[in-house]
């Protein structure tokens, strides 16, 4: 009698209606996927910290541009003195005439990568646009980590 009861319960448990479908795949498959992600991460090229920091700041919007500093009450205005628009990440990357030289270099790199659109989204979220974004940030020297500093003798470092 006990075995019959156990057999009935086992048959019920095999019913697909009772299976937990939230658990998909095996533990071995999950482990393999994790190992592959770790290997991809280890093989990916490394970037200097100032560049990593700048791109993260631009993506998050927590960047020392007037729009963010105005919210933090660090500057009294959020308008660009060059063109009169709100100084935002989009303005800095795409439209401010002050950075046209840097944007021209970035456009050439984007064309080499066959990226036709220069937008905040393409510059910050397309992996193929990374070189263009990096060169734009470095050439524009707008962010503190890329500004040249003068030493005590007045020469640029």
From TrEMBL:
Name this protein carries in UniProt: Reverse transcriptase zinc-binding domain-containing protein
